[in-house]
Amino acid sequence: MAGPAKLRRDAGVIGLLYASLGSIIGSGWLFGALHAAVQAGPRSVLSWVIGAVAILFLAFVFAELSTMFPNSGALVHMTHVSHGDLVGKIWSWILFLAFVSVPPVEVTAVLTYTNNYLPGLIHSGTGLMTNLGMALAAVLLAAVVALNFLAVRWVIAINSAATWWKLVIPIATIAILMAYSFHPHNMVAHVHSTPVSGVFTAVATAGIVFSFLGFQQAIALAGETRNPNRYVPIALISSVLIGMLIYVGLQVAFITALSPQDMAGGWNHLRFTGMFGPLAAIAVTVGAVWWAVLLYVDAIISPLGTAFIYITASPRIIMAAGEMGNAPQHVTRLSRQGVPWVGLVVTYFVGVLFFFPFPSWQKLVSAVSLITVLSYSIGPVILLRLRRALPDAPRPFRLRAAGVLAPIAFIASNWIIYWTGYAVAQWMFSAVFVYIVAYLLWYFVVRRRPLRELGWQQAWWTVPYLGGMWLVSYLGPKGAMGGTGTLGFFTGMWIIAAFSLVMLWLALRAGQSSEAAQRCADLVKTLGSSGVDSRERAEELEVAP
């Protein structure tokens, strides 16, 4: 009798690098320069650097963690090892929301550009999708999901080919815009028309951090490479650095290509014809019509390529949740090609649901940025806790100065969450809160399990952490951030920094014991060797220490 299907290990270092870089160069390059300039003016160049540095700290953290847990859906596994079953369940839900919400963003980006030559998909006044646009979005998402039913080696090959295209077009766009229209004075024009705080809010809401978070794809596919210890750190760090160089170049090219009259009323009142497709519109304005046509083509390829690779990773997160007992065991089923097909189906239907409350690129990107950064904010906590609980565990890549870099990464993550503003935070924190309440009702009322087995001793800190982040966002600045105005912007940042250090200390104290962490790590290790976990393993992982 044939054994269970296993994940194939066909992804090499180039495949992993392309997976991360292909996700970084998605719809963000098509819209990010415009939205960043509106919020921060010429200082938006600094926004891209800040975003890259912040994400690079997280990438350093996960370069160590991902080599300790070279499984697909690794963050789900390492959360269980560090802080047990309840924290693992909460973060599985956060991760699920983070991954499954990205493909709808990319599909929406395609329709937003397409609307410039096929009107009727986007409302001209609001930028929201029409009913026709929603229907087409569902069809496009289904097509990308269908391609992911191929074996992973074909998935990697398709993404690698698309990544070459996605790299060449942005780089060429930088050169062409500067060659056709170059106004260097724009880099200092109307600099005070946007607040200094716009440099930071742009990181979270203009698609900057959304773009750089594509680095995570190498982690999600770690279980499908033969040498994760070497390949994953290279892919993580290289993809962020390459992405930063491209995006900074694009921002400079965008600003200097604009006609000085376009920002005559200040950067926050920037207006020009065709803003729904900003780069193509500028190309037309400066006389590079032939390149605008190519940009409209790329506006289909780049976002769909990113949606493609996120849909590749999302089912692996769902499968990992099933392996750890956080989701029904049915989600761990693989096709003959080694594809987690149940997770693909779930990814599609939940992804379609995101079109309804967030029917535009601008609305979706802030929400996705917050929930994704929140999902990865636990990384520094896990790294430092495992340094204490499992000091002798193999670490093929060991982060130097982790005691300094990990806290910085945690603070940076929480700053980004704060920068998105209360209007977005209340949606995302509510989704997490609803899940926690629903799980507790199921645990105590349906299963009638005792409190001692819940794992609250390792998870209690998540309540003040999530509640505190919500509260500071609520008390934050008014206007675009949607707070009450009780706290000034930079006062809120200082409070977040101090709060982060306190929560980090509490979270480290609440982690699993060395014995429990080692037992869980040993069980997680078997997942990488067997490919599919059994119900018995999932139940064993669920037992509280």
Topology record:
Elements: H1 13-24, H2 28-40, H3 44-68, H4 74-100, H5 102-114, H6 131-147, H7 152-180, H8 197-205, H9 208-212, H10 217-220, H11 228-257, H12 278-285, H13 289-323, H14 341-353, H15 361-376, H16 378-389, H17 402-419, H18 422-446, H19 456-459, H20 462-475, H21 489-509, H22 514-530, H23 535-542
Explain this structure to me?
The protein is mostly helical. The chain has one domain: Amino acid/polyamine transporter I. The chain is built from 23 helices and no strands. Helix 5 crosses helix 6 and helix 18 packs antiparallel against helix 20. The radius of gyration is 22 Å and the shape is globular. The two termini are 37 Å apart.
Short summary of the structure?
Helix content is 69%, strand content 0%. By secondary structure, the protein is mostly helical.
Features:
disordered C terminus; mainly alpha; Amino acid/polyamine transporter I; 23 helices; 545 residues
Q: Low-confidence parts lasting 5 or more residues at pLDDT below 50? A: 1-7, 529-545
Q: Per CATH, what is the topology?
A: Amino acid/polyamine transporter I
CATH architectural category:
Up-down Bundle
Number of domains: 1
Strand percentage lies at: under 5%
Give the helix tally: 23
In percent, how helical is the residue content?
A: 55-70%
Radius of gyration: 22 Å
* Average pLDDT, all residues: 83
